[in-house]
Amino acid sequence: MSTSSFQGHYQSPININKELAEYDSSLKPLEINYDPKSAIKIVNVGHCFNVEFEDTKGKSVLTGGPLNEVYRLLQCHFHWGSSDIEGSEHSIDGIKYPSEMHLVHWNVQKYSSAAEAAKHCNGLAVIGVFLEVGKRNPGIENIIDHLDNIKTKGKEDTFTELDLLSLLPKDLQYWTYPGSLTVAPFSECVTWIILKETITISTKQLEKFRSVLCTSENEDPCPILKNNRCIQPLEGRIVRSSWWQNRTFSTT
Q1: Burial level of 84, CB count in 10 A (0-12/13-18/19+)?
Q2: Active-site residue (options: 9, 47, 102, 146)
Q3: Which residues of the chain have pLDDT under 50?
Q4: Do residues 9 and 227 lie in contact, with contact meaning Cβ atoms separated by under 8 Å?
Q5: What is the pLDDT of residue 3?
């Protein structure tokens, strides 16, 4: 996976400094409506694996928060590192987590397809969830059960049901900022929504992530040990917070 820089001013991931994040009273609660049966397949894309969702009937959507339109769930994936010490893309006060889950949505009110949406600054919305090492996560186990079937790049397996709501923390307070994709072409089209509360993942589950290969079936096996991009400069962007942190205050 490439971690090279892109010549832009809204690149992701970033370090979130809690002291500098501005509480914004205009930010709304997230409204997340996911249909567990909208999951259709899991695919090894080489740098990670994606769980992809049915993308035409609008059963799984995200509204509220910092968003002004309806965004439909497209796929979810994870980032991890070579050990349990660090693997998340974003960091909080310089601290990284072992893994980070991304739920990717696209703006169905403004654009005709996810590919078209990715060309615009308000095209995508990604919820980021930090994972801490702890007890085995049953929701993640449902995903891990498919990984042996997609061991090599290009492999895919049918997915019939995934309850993403059970994977989300109870507290949906968040930070938000304008940013980019964290893989090529690093398009600056993402409204990032980073949840404050974490979920757990066990060491054995993380080991299973690292057993997935970035190589095709006819190539020498090479496991995906690390797929997180390095922290990018903030470049003057404001990170807003949905909850009062006894910090700075913004009403814009």
Answers
A1: middle
A2: 47
A3: 1-5, 248-252
A4: no
A5: 38
| pTM for the full predicted model | 0.94
pLDDT digit string, tens, across residues 85-125: 999 999 999 999 999 999 999 999 999 999 999 999 999 99
Query: How many whole angstroms separate alpha carbon 50 and alpha carbon 42?
Result: 6
Could you tell me the CA-to-CA distances from 248 to 37, 193, 209, 243 in Å, in that order?
42, 19, 39, 11
Known catalytic residue at 120: no
